[in-house]
Specification:
With 217 residues, the chain is α/β, with parallel strands linked by helices. The chain contains 9 helices and 8 strands. The chain has helices at residues 3-16, 27-39, 54-61, 82-91, 103-111, 123-133, 141-155, 172-177, 193-214; strands at residues 18-22, 44-48, 73-77, 95-97, 115-120, 135-138, 160-163, 183-185. The protein has an 8-stranded parallel sheet with strand order 7-6-5-4-3-2-1-8, with helices on both faces. Mean pLDDT is 92; it is low at 205-217. Pathway: Carbohydrate acid metabolism. Keywords: Carbohydrate metabolism, Lyase. Belongs to the KHG/KDPG aldolase family. Homotrimer.
């Protein structure tokens, strides 16, 4: 994929720090949740193929903008087949995510010059994903905990690492301090607009403090 495409998304994730992972009852609810997230200060949202009618939800949300007027970055997760990858990109997704190594999805992403964050759990799987695209989803993250991400960061210092699975919003600072680029959250995000906005506004604080400490500031 062109570096400017992956770099654009990865920079957005590094700034946002929390990546919502939406598994909804239907497409309408996915659109409603995405719209609320964009209004709360979120820009990148991961819809999933487990939502009935997910492709329609992608096509309806891809043209939207965030609260700052920037184009939304709508991705599709739980992509494990060639057909799902093609459908997601045709619907307007700007990135794909798999829960585990998915060579067939990687092949589509390469052919269509799309951003693909491949899932993995073992160090070998994660390193292979990073070698392919500079990024990896660590899943299921709660099994290894923040300490596992800290160990990965030690040997993959420049990688985009997105732990996902079993992480609650209150635990995000621990994962960021361990070296996560952004944290995938599949449940527990508040529905109140002010509380939701506070999640994204507060996510950068521990990360900034961590960066400043590492730089001696």
């Amino acid at each position: 994929m062109p570096d400017h495409l992956s770099g654009h998304l990865y920079a957005a994730l590094a700034a946002q720090r929390v990546l919502p992972v939406l598994r909804e009852a239907d497409a309408d609810e996915a659109v409603r949740r995405t719209t609320a997230l964009l209004a709360a200060g979120c820009r990148a949202v991961e819809l999933t193929t487990s939502t009935p009618g997910w492709a329609g939800a992608v096509s309806r949300t891809a043209p939207l903008s965030d609260v700052h007027g920037r184009p939304a970055l709508i991705g599709v997760g739980t992509v494990t087949t060639t057909a799902q990858a093609e459908t997601a990109l045709d619907a307007g997704a700007v990135f794909l995510i798999s829960p585990y190594p998915a060579p067939e999805v990687r092949a589509v992403a390469v052919r269509r010059e799309a951003v693909f964050i491949e899932g993995g759990f073992t160090p070998g799987e994660i390193a292979a994903a990073v070698r392919a695209a500079g990024a990896a989803k660590v899943f299921p993250a709660h099994v290894g905990g923040p300490g596992f991400v800290r160990s990965l960061r030690a040997v993959l210092p420049t990688a985009v690492i997105v732990p996902t699975g079993g992480i609650r919003p209150a635990e995000v600072p621990d994962w960021l301090a361990a070296g996560a680029t952004a944290v995938g959250i599949g449940g527990g995000l508040p529905t109140d607009p002010d509380e939701l906005a506070a999640v994204f506004a507060g996510a950068a604080t521990p990360c900034r403090a961590h960066r400043d400490a590492a730089a001696g500031r």
